[in-house]
Amino acid sequence: NVSLKVSTDSKHYFKNQVKVGLFGSGVGLSVVLGFSAAYACYYLLSVAKKPILIAGGKKFHQFLRDKCPVVSETYYPTFWCWESRVQTLLRPFVTTKPWVNYRNELISAPDGGQISLDWFDNDDSASHPDQATCPTVLLLPGLTGTSRESYILHMVQQSRDLGYRCVVFNNRGVSGEKLLTPRTYCAANTEDLEVVIEHVQRTIDKAPLMAAGVSMGGMMLANYLGRKGSEVHLKGVVVFSAGWDVFEGTASLEKPLDRFLFNSYLTSCLQASVDRHRIILEKKYDIDHVMKAKTIREFDERFTSIMFGYPSNDDYYRDASPIHKIKSVQVPMLCLNAADDVFSPNHAFPVEAVKQNPNVALLITCHGGHIGFLEGLWPRQSTYMDRVFRQFTSAVFENASSLDGLH
């Protein structure tokens, strides 16, 4: 009986303990509620903020505030992944990949190479049914990106909803086409981009054309605008997560954590692309030496700077940095960067150069990482970056006259 009583008492004891537990006692619940309240306060006070808009001219500044309200709205990053590296790493995995049916076109380059363009014709456009005059957006992906990247597909989707046509410029050798000459691409060389723009403008000579570039695509686009000045006939340009100073961006990516998370992976992607075209590239370059590179800087020293004839890698990096060419841009250009982007450190943003050019505006969010800009509880669909793209693209095409005379 004593044994039975002890056993029964034990059962009651443990049963009550399980019932009370951490939450039943009120202590655990208080801790959770307290932590949640503190986190919410921190998020609202320190994380969710309005972006900073810097523009070189009052007219462009006012145009953006009137026609692109997103530039004045508070950006609320996804509350559970607002840290820059997490935003950068998660975007390719959590955002959807809208289905897009492209029409591929291969065009010839002056050196005998070929360039792959992916067209989304948007034949069913209700707002612009005439294909001859349908507004068109030229899209430039990032370092190793193609027309199948999620951020490109989302911009095509936004353009489709607006009734516009898109064409994606794939850099040489990255989208499955054969490399015909021992040459690929880099941020500094804009010869292929010039060929593409001239071809597109000849093909749709009655349609207005603007361009959007992401990361290295944005750098290439900004370098092109700076070099060509008044010769550019694009209606407008929007650039996302561009690396403005390659020296600073490379140094940032060589810090231990960022080297582990990003640098090594991107280097291996570049090497894989080179290895795919080894047969033609090894005629001019030491591919085995290139394949031993451990960082992007080493890859550029052994391959990119040599390919494009620079005396040194520093000369290449200097030429590839758009920060030096902002002053010469003569087309309305909006640039979106996150202040916490490890690929493009905020101390290297071209703030002073932008202030001196009435054609350029720089939009800076506190968070967003590199091509991240996730927002919403579960960021499967459009991001803050997509909203900026949609509003600016629509504003340029539908209110072109408002941008006349920015100089």
Automatic annotation (TrEMBL):
Annotated GO molecular function terms are: acetylesterase activity; monoacylglycerol lipase activity; phospholipase A1 activity; phospholipase A2 activity
Q: Where is the AB hydrolase-1 domain?
A: 135-376
One Pfam family here: Abhydrolase_1
UniProt keyword list: Hydrolase, Lipid metabolism, Membrane, Phospholipid metabolism, Serine esterase, Signal-anchor, Transmembrane, Transmembrane helix
Q: Does the keyword Cell cycle apply?
A: no
Q: Which reaction does it catalyse?
A: 1-tetradecanoyl-2-(9Z,12Z-octadecadienoyl)-sn-glycero-3-phosphocholine + H2O = 1-tetradecanoyl-sn-glycero-3-phosphocholine + (9Z,12Z)-octadecadienoate + H(+); 1-tetradecanoyl-2-(5Z,8Z,11Z,14Z-eicosatetraenoyl)-sn-glycero-3-phosphocholine + H2O = 2-(5Z,8Z,11Z,14Z)-eicosatetraenoyl-sn-glycero-3-phosphocholine + tetradecanoate + H(+); 1-tetradecanoyl-2-(4Z,7Z,10Z,13Z,16Z,19Z-docosahexaenoyl)-sn-glycero-3-phosphocholine + H2O = 2-(4Z,7Z,10Z,13Z,16Z,19Z-docosahexaenoyl)-sn-glycero-3-phosphocholine + tetradecanoate + H(+); 1-hexadecanoyl-2-glutaroyl-sn-glycero-3-phosphocholine + H2O = glutarate + 1-hexadecanoyl-sn-glycero-3-phosphocholine + H(+)
Under Enzyme Commission nomenclature, its number is 3.1.1.32, 3.1.1.4
Membrane spanning stretches = 20-45
Which organism is this entry from? Sinocyclocheilus anshuiensis
The name this protein goes by in its record: Phospholipase ABHD3
What's its top-level EC category? hydrolase
Any one GO biological process: phosphatidylcholine metabolic process
